[in-house]
Design brief:
The complex is a heterodimer of chains A (785) and B (453). Chain A has 785 residues and is α+β, with helices and mostly antiparallel strands. Chain A contains 25 helices and 18 strands. Chain A is elongated and about 115 Å long. Chain B is of the alpha+beta class and 453 residues long. The chains are: A alpha+beta (785), B alpha+beta (453). Chains A and B meet through helix 6, helix 7, strand 1 and helix 8 of A and helix 1, helix 2, strand 8 and strand 9 of B. Strand 1 of chain A pairs antiparallel with strand 9 of chain B, so a sheet runs across the interface. Chain B: Keywords: Membrane, Transmembrane, Transmembrane helix. Chain B: This is DUF58 domain-containing protein.
Chain lengths: 785, 453
């Protein structure tokens, strides 16, 4: 066969580049279902075009192939600078140190945003950055495969990457139309390659005496071959589409089913983790805030409104890109007649690293945050897609409501939209039902029932204990736990909050549970009439919020000894005009009152301790494996090369040549300045000068090898004139197994001669590979026969 | 005009490496996508499976019509030279013919160029041909050895537009390329008519029995009237006379050992087409060719006999084949080219042996002519036949290769055959020169002695 890599003309190279670009651009379209909007695709196309265009331009300038990939990498950096560097770059193009700082920030944010955003993601700058980098790298890989290695069929691998990703994250996977388009683009690349290859071969005829002369027709219309290509492609794609549609769904994703969303985490089950945190010692300062005297709100991190299954969590909701924090909405269900006042609070987060921002409910404005933050409908939880709370400083305007019991009592029926917040399972344990009936007997209104429930839970029968549920075996969430709790009557905030929420639903009041922090401990520091209040991880808390039409979501405090009982929820409220009586955390003894916690880890982390340990182990293992693979890659490549050569020695066309190549490579590996272009005799002389070849055995083996290769190179060509049968059966130039034997002896002699460091280097960093790579990926050595 | 024909399928359609890889990847993806229920990947998997299969069907169903003309330049090639093979491939289909590669099949022993791209051919232009449907291919073929080689048919491998599948088809027929033995230029000063005219008078005096073959020429002053050829005169309208005088049509006899019967211990019973040539036999053929061509070029009529019975010779070198001087060398060389290296079992030969002596035995005692024997490995019986033939030949030269047994050489020398040993082809010229010098000397001596007697 002919040498594979013939030099291409600029036009042919350009055609391949264009086809590659088309393939990559179409393939990135497959990410469409994952990301909202369409601007990101233009960025990807820009990156792909820039990278591949750079490659094409460099080839047009006849740059050495080995330089093209590094230069393309440079081009990616420049393009990224243009897109993201902004003012940090010199002349918008040349990256500076600041630019890389920006990149680093974006990369970190990208990692977070990938972990935090759910599908479809909002194309925040960090995500765009990740897409741009990914596209640029894919473009380099594709260019390398298509142009340098000239294996366009393998270009499917980089193109497959953006297609596979949607399948991992969403059930439907990439849109079939996009996939068909990608396949068509791939076929186009193959077609272009076939044409380019044929033309290259036609215009680079063999030289030599027996090379054929071909006088081609001057013009040939390619229209009809176009029809054949189109027809074949259409037939194949159509058949594939029909087969795909006709194939029934065999399994329902039983392996990846649980792994769905590993990349874009959705929802969090902090509910159980909260309890685990509360039992940990050592408070960690969470954040502090400056607020007016007496302004002590709870800070909500997230709201749990779905009471289903074992693990209760927030409704899975994608971040809505329109809900930016610049415009906070008015809370649900709040009528104008409810008394309220706005209080500014300035918060500085210390050690909390989550995606949920601690904000009081309700809040009318938030300012000063870094990153992209969005609020959720209803709960007004504020979360980020590319940043974290760590180290943030921001101003919040809190809307302090002071509904009167009359307003609450007079609340109408909840709207139908809140039906979800009333949902209870059919198999609700009887004890919950009966207890609720007993407690709320005689309540005149839902509000009175809620007050009675809170009073009941705060009553003397219930004790606060973070350890009792664990030792009794009913920790966590779920209805069975609540039933158990109602009998044992010992637990902590999670149990009280969920019990009250469930009982409220039983009565007919929409309810949800907020997880966050209580108001914390005031410090002595005062700044201009405001008090600095410190909140630490001991202030982690969960509390129920009940909905009353006209007032909205109203918080209650059923946990004895924790937090503040709102004035409107006290029995007999309305008669006295007292504001909330602080029953602050300081009033409870540390032994049982201060729940311990590590909010950093468990509110942010999606996995529990054991699971995270396992995943960490796995990650470390994978990392170790990758590192090991990287370290041994040269050795593996070299070993594979040796095996290939040995196979050629055993049954190839030029066995002695292969054996000699291997010998030269081994010598080069060991640092002997052997030049593969030299004659065998010169090389043998060079090698035999070494100490190990004083032994007659090794020297004889070397001479055998040398003679064999000389006979093969310069001797009569037994393969040409004679038919192959004779060449094989008659007088083979050199029998294979002695060659291998001799090669082994020479190699071991060479190795014995070298110092151990040199040997190790020969194994792990073989120089011969470097020499082969430096030789370039251009035209191969002249073909034989 | 060659007939347009559908190309014959030579082998089943096959997937290329690319197509095979795509198929394997497709199957792997199919398994994965079914396992994980990924519909998008499922589509790609089916593309990976369907495209190679569609390509297979495409190349199998696509039926290109192509006509091929093949010519050799020169038509007959001497061994060790180059022959140019010219091919004209014309598309006879209504569609453009693209995506093909060609390779000419040649018989073992010759090396055709590697597979190469066949340029795209436009649709067939029935009328007003502009040549866009035709491609001219030309390659040089080295012809190292004497023989008749089949060149063709043309193998055309077509692939689908995406390079996923291919099929090999053949078109046209095989043509024989005759590679004649190498001819060594021999010294013209020896072995010419003049040098051996002493042995030719008998022949010269002989009149030809068939007057029809006589050549008429115009009357010249002095021609006797009885020699006027009236029939020719009537045809030409001027006076013609019979040319009764024979040109000195000298004849020589060439005896070639084509059976190698001396090889008693020949292990190889039959020869296969691809076997390496028997170098001694080839040397013998080369000697015979050089001597024969030399003699023919110098006006001899060459009577060529195999040393053995004609039936035993597979080639067309028949017993007593006579080659005449102008142009005869081509026929002679071609016959030598077609001569196959013998290698038959002995049993076959014994039956023919009886006829041999009889056929070779002298038929007349007319004129003695120069006789040249090329011996490769004759047995004693054949040697005796040569001995018996000796009186009719003057001079009698035997070129022997090294494989001739000493017994045979002794026998021949005893009967006054001049023995010249040739070991290598490049000794032929010098052997010829020395052989004639000695033979002529010997003949002169003998004739001198005869006259003296």
């Amino acid at each position: 066969m002919r040498a594979e890599r013939l030099p291409l003309t600029r036009l042919q190279s350009l055609a391949l580049s264009l086809a590659s670009f088309l393939l990559l651009a179409v393939a990135t379209m497959a990410l469409g279902p994952l990301i909202t909007g369409g601007g990101w695709w233009w960025l990807c196309a820009f990156m792909a075009a820039g990278t591949l265009g750079t490659g094409a331009a460099l080839r047009a300038l006849r740059t050495p192939p080995s330089l093209i990939a590094p230069l393309e990498l440079l081009a990616v950096v420049v393009l990224l600078t243009m897109a993201f560097g902004g003012s940090s770059a010199f002349a918008f193009v040349v990256p500076t140190g600041d630019t890389f700082e920006v990149f680093r920030g974006l990369a970190e944010a990208a990692q977070r945003t990938i972990e935090q955003q759910s599908v479809p993601a909002i194309p925040v700058p960090a995500l765009l950055f990740a897409l741009a980098v990914g596209t640029g790298l894919l473009a380099i890989v594709m260019d390398l495969i298509v142009q340098t290695f000239r294996l366009p069929a393998l270009a499917a691998a980089p193109a497959l990457v953006p297609i596979v990703i949607p399948g991992l994250l969403i059930e439907a996977g990439a849109e079939l139309g996009t996939v068909v388009l990608t396949a068509a683009a791939y076929l186009l690349l193959l077609r272009v390659d076939v044409r380019v290859r044929r033309n290259a071969e036609l215009h680079n005829p063999d030289v030599g005496d027996d090379a054929p002369t071909v006088v081609a027709p001057r013009r040939v219309p390619i229209g009809s071959t176009l029809a054949a290509s189109l027809g074949l492609a259409t037939a194949g794609l159509l058949a594939a589409s029909v087969l795909t549609i006709a194939t029934p769904s065999v399994s329902s994703s039983f392996l990846l089913g649980t792994a769905q969303g590993t990349l874009f985490a959705r929802g969090v089950s902090p509910y159980v983790d909260l309890g685990r945190d509360l039992r940990r010692p050592d408070p960690v300062p969470a954040f502090n805030y400056l607020a007016d005297e007496g302004d002590r709100p709870y800070f909500t991190l997230l709201t749990i409104d779905r009471f289903e299954g074992e693990v209760w969590g927030a409704t899975e909701r994608a971040v809505d890109g329109d809900n930016t924090i610049e415009r906070m909405p008015r809370p649900d269900g709040l009528a104008a007649d409810v008394a309220g006042s706005e209080h500014p609070i300035s918060i500085r987060v210390e050690q909390v690293r989550t995606t949920w921002l601690p904000v009081p409910y309700p809040t009318t404005s938030i300012q000063g945050l870094d990153g992209s933050w969005f609020w959720d409908d209803g709960s007004l939880n504020v979360r980020t897609v590319d940043s974290s709370t760590f180290g943030q400083t921001y101003e919040v305007t809190r809307l302090a409501l002071d509904p009167t019991p009359q307003q609450l009592r007079g609340a109408g029926a909840p709207p139908a939209a809140l039906a979800d917040s009333l949902a209870l399972p059919d198999d609700l344990p009887d004890v919950i039902r009966t207890t609720t009936e007993q407690v709320t007997a005689g309540a005149a209104s839902p509000y009175d029932a809620a007050v009675l429930i809170q009073q009941y839970l705060r009553g003397p029968d219930f004790t606060y204990s973070v350890d009792a549920p664990v030792s009794e075996g009913y920790d966590g969430g779920g209805y069975d736990v609540i039933a158990e709790f109602l009998e044992k009557r010992a637990g902590y905030c999670v149990h009280f909050a969920s019990t009250m929420a469930v009982m409220a639903r039983e009565v007919g009041i929409p309810s949800r549970i907020s997880v966050g922090y209580t108001s914390g401990t005031p410090s002595d520091e005062r700044i201009g009439g405001t008090v600095r209040v410190d909140v630490d991880s001991h202030d982690l808390h969960a509390w129920p919020e009940l909905y009353f039409q006209g007032v909205g979501w109203v918080q209650f405090e059923p946990t004895p000894g924790r937090g503040t009982v709102p004035s409107y929820s006290r029995p007999g409220a309305g008669e006295e005009s007292l504001s909330g009586i602080p029953l602050g955390p300081s009033s409870t003894p540390g032994a049982n009152g201060r729940p311990e916690g590590d909010p950093d880890r468990n509110l942010a982390g999606q996995a529990g301790g054991a699971a995270s340990a396992a995943s960490e182990w796995m990650r470390n293992g994978t990392l170790a494996l990758v590192v090991l693979l990287l370290v041994t890659a040269p050795a593996l490549v070299r070993s594979a090369q040796r095996q290939l050569r040995l196979r050629r020695v055993r049954g190839g066309p030029r066995p002695a040549g292969a054996a000699w190549d291997e010998l030269v490579a081994s010598a080069v590996d060991l640092g002997i300045p052997a030049d593969a272009r030299g004659t065998p005799r010169a090389l043998a002389a060079l090698v035999s000068g070494r100490a190990a070849f004083a032994s007659p055995d090794a020297a004889a083996a070397l001479v055998d090898l040398r003679d064999a290769v000389e006979r093969e190179r310069y001797g009569p060509d037994t393969g040409g004139d004679l038919p192959p049968a004779v060449a094989r059966a008659g007088t083979p130039p050199a029998p294979a197994s002695p060659l291998i034997d001799a090669l082994g002896r020479v190699r071991s002699a060479l190795a014995a001669d070298a110092p151990p460091a040199e040997r190790a280097r020969a194994t792990f960093l073989p120089r011969s590979l470097l020499a082969g790579a430096r030789g370039g990926v251009g035209r191969r050595a002249p073909r034989d026969a | 005009m060659p007939r347009a024909r559908l190309l014959r399928v030579q082998a089943w359609p096959r997937l290329t490496r690319r197509g095979g890889t795509l198929l394997v990847v497709g199957v792997l993806l199919l398994v994965l996508s079914l396992w994980f229920d990924l519909r998008d990947i499922l589509l790609l998997a089916f593309v990976g499976i369907a495209m190679p299969l569609a390509a297979l069907a495409f190349v199998a169903l696509q039926a290109p019509r192509v006509a091929v003309q093949r010519a050799f330049e020169p038509p007959v090639v001497p061994a060790g030279a180059w022959a140019t093979v010219r091919l004209v491939v014309q598309n006879r289909s209504r569609r453009t013919f693209d995506g093909a590669r060609w390779r000419d099949t040649v018989q073992a022993g010759l090396a055709a160029p590697a597979e190469a791209i066949l340029p795209a051919l436009g649709r067939w232009e029935g009328a007003l041909p502009s040549g866009d449907d035709t491609v001219r291919l030309e390659y040089r073929l080295r012809t190292p050895r004497r023989g008749v080689y089949a060149v063709g048919p043309l193998r055309i491998g077509t692939a689908d537009p995406f390079g996923l599948a291919r099929i090999a088809r053949v078109v046209g027929n095989a043509h024989d390329l005759v590679v004649t033995p190498r001819v060594t230029e021999l010294d013209a000063t020896v072995g010419s008519v003049a040098s051996i005219d002493g042995s030719l008078h008998g022949l010269q005096r002989r009149t030809h029995p068939n007057s029809d073959e006589l050549i008429a020429r115009e009357y010249r002053y002095g021609d006797p009237l009885r020699r006027v050829n009236w029939a020719a005169t009537a045809r030409r309208g001027e006076l013609m006379v019979r040319e009764e005088e024979q040109r000195g049509d000298p004849e020589a006899r060439l005896l070639v050992d084509t059976t190698l019967s001396g090889r008693a211990a020949q292990a190889q019973a039959r020869r296969e087409p691809g076997d390496p040539p028997d170098l001694r036999f080839e040397l013998g053929i080369e000697i015979a060719a050089s001597v024969g061509v030399h003699l023919l070029e110098h006006g001899f009529r060459l009577r060529c006999d195999p040393l053995h019975a004609p039936a035993s010779i597979a080639g067309q070198l028949g017993a007593g084949e006579v080659y005449r001087s102008p142009g005869g060398e081509h026929a002679f060389l071609e016959d030598l080219a077609r001569l196959e290296t013998p290698g038959r079992g002995r049993a076959h030969r014994d039956r023919e042996r009886d006829q041999a002596a009889e056929l070779i035995a002298p038929r007349s005692r007319e004129a003695r002519m120069p006789g040249i024997a090329v011996l490769i490995d004759p047995d004693v019986v054949e040697a005796h036949a040569l001995v018996a033939l000796r009186p009719t030949l003057e001079p009698a030269i035997a070129f022997v290769t090294e494989s001739v047994s000493p017994t045979v050489i002794e026998l021949l020398e005893e009967s006054d055959w001049r023995i010249v040993t040739v070991r290598r082809p490049n000794e032929i010229a010098s052997a010829w020169t020395s052989a004639w010098r000695d033979a002529r000397g010997g003949a002169a001596q003998r004739s001198g002695a005869g006259r003296a007697r």
